[in-house]
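[INFO] parsing input record for AI-2E family transporter
[DEBUG] input buffer:
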Amino acid sequence: MTPQNNLSSEKNIQKELTYIQKVWHTVAIVALLVVVILIARVAFNVLLMVLAGVLVSVYFHGLGDIIQRKTNWRRRICMIISVGGTFIILVSLFWLMGATISKQIAVLSDTLPHTINTAKAKLGETPIGQKILDYLSDDNSDTLMTTAKSFFNTSFGVLGDIYIILFLAIFFTSNPNLYKDGMIKLFPESRKPLAHQVIDRISHALKGWLKGMMLSMVLVFILLSIGLGIMSIPVALVLALLTGLLKLIPNFGSLAAMIPGVLLALTISTNTAIIVALIYIVTQTVVSNIVTPIIQNKMINLPPALTILAQVLMGTLSGVLGIILAVPLLAIVMILVDELYVKKLSETDIVIVPERSQP
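[DEBUG] output buffer:
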């Protein structure tokens, strides 16, 4: 074999090795990106649970602030009353209403198949209702159920998440300054005042959201209990409680909560179903557009379209927990953008005034 042939064969071997190295480099980069995305998704879910724990801690401290202002007692005593009183009230409510609610849940589960069949019969009497039934009777129903299951089970291990959130809330409540000062220490000395300002503003926004949300849930529960009770709707207490809990999910929660109530009313008569739907709509409208804005006056104004987009995005990424925390998370992001970008941009803007021409 001539030296030229040896040289060309060595070059071919070197090209093949270079190509194989490039392939393996590409595979390694893709694998690394996949691992980073998976870690980021898990870390994001952990951050959501941290935010949920912060919200519970903000609730305890907000209630402690109210007790301290009214009584002038020591802070530790007020916090013990805040945490202990909350758990006592919850246990008392479950003890007083638990038997009634459990009976109504059993009745609802027993009558649900009959309710669905009756609703189908009522819908089949109208052309539009028949089209809806035709749509749901095809493979679309299976697709909808599969989508719903995957949507609500994405990352929402109920017991596990609640367990972690409660422990985080206890730690945040017991010594909040430890975590707040720890975050501020991460910033340089010149940025510490800005960090204090941002944290305080976020705290006020979260308190405003919590106040509005909790009062909205209670008012929706009371108003719907009265309205559905007047209409003699079965399991009115359970329906009102479900609607109050789903108030945690703006926009979509109200629509989802109205479906079982209207279906049950449809088993009585079509007019009753229309009246019940109006009760739901009026209650949600009054609470959402009058009561909640008054209570949440300390929270920044969030555009409705941006809120819906945030809910859809968070629901896709993190399931129900993401939907519930979409609004406070969006508020935090907007505060950070306002404090760290918008205000800095307005401070650095230089207005150039044109010189007047000399006569």
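[INFO] The CA atoms of residues 160 and 166 lie 10 Å apart.
[INFO] shutting down worker
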